[in-house]
Amino acid sequence: MVAQEQTEVSQYLGGVRLVDVSFPEQVQGGSFPIRYELSEERLPGVRGLQSFINGTEVVVVDDEGVFDGKTIQWIVHARNKGVVAFNVSLYHQGRLLDLQTFQVTVV
Q1: In this predicted structure, what is the pLDDT of residue 67?
Q2: Residue-level pLDDT at 13
Q3: What would the DSSP string read from start to end of 50-94?
Q4: Which of 33-37, 39-43, 100-104 has the lowest mean pLDDT?
Q5: What range defines the domain where residue 40 resides?
Q6: pTM of this prediction?
Q7: How far apart are CA 27 and CA 13, in angstroms?
Q8: Which of 62, 81, 89, 103 is the most exposed place for a label (fewest CB within 10 A)?
Q9: Residue 75: which residues within 8 A CB-CB, separation 6 or more?
Q10: What whole-number distance in Å separates Cα of residue 17 and Cα of residue 100?
């Protein structure tokens, strides 16, 4: 008998984008929720899918991100008051699928 090595074939996603992005235009305090969906139908079990929120004036904690296969939700913490710009990106297997820039006013 010969044991065959099983290799997992990576499924590369193409054309998946961030859609239905929602967050408040103006926030008081410094933390606000942002929610967005993927343009494709529910994608359960797809490995290597990552989403990031970054900017010089924002902080996001990994534990505060929720992904249910279709919808992604984060809590974003702004470091300063005023107009704060941030990027939302979506990667699969290290390849950039989508990148969008937004801004919010923190009072």
Answers
A1: 87
A2: 73
A3: EEEEE-TTEEE-GGG-EE-SSEEEEEEEESSSEEEEEEEEEEETT
A4: 39-43
A5: 18-106
A6: 0.80
A7: 34
A8: 62
A9: 31, 32, 33, 60, 61, 64
A10: 10
The CA distance from 102 to 57, in Å, is: 12
Q: How far is CA 84 from CA 30, 56, 62, 87, in A?
A: 10, 9, 20, 10
Q: Using an 8 Å Cβ cutoff, are 103 and 83 in contact? A: yes
Can you give the pLDDT at residue 90? 92
Amino acid 44: pLDDT: 61
Taking only the tens place, the pLDDT of each residue in 3-17 is 544 444 456 677 889
CATH, residue 56 = 2.60.40.10
Task: Tally the residues of the chain.
Answer: 107
Q: Supply the mean pLDDT for the chain.
A: 85
Rounded Cα gap, residues 59 and 27, in angstroms: 15
**Both structure tokens of 105:** 């006013």
Rg from Cα positions in the chain: 17
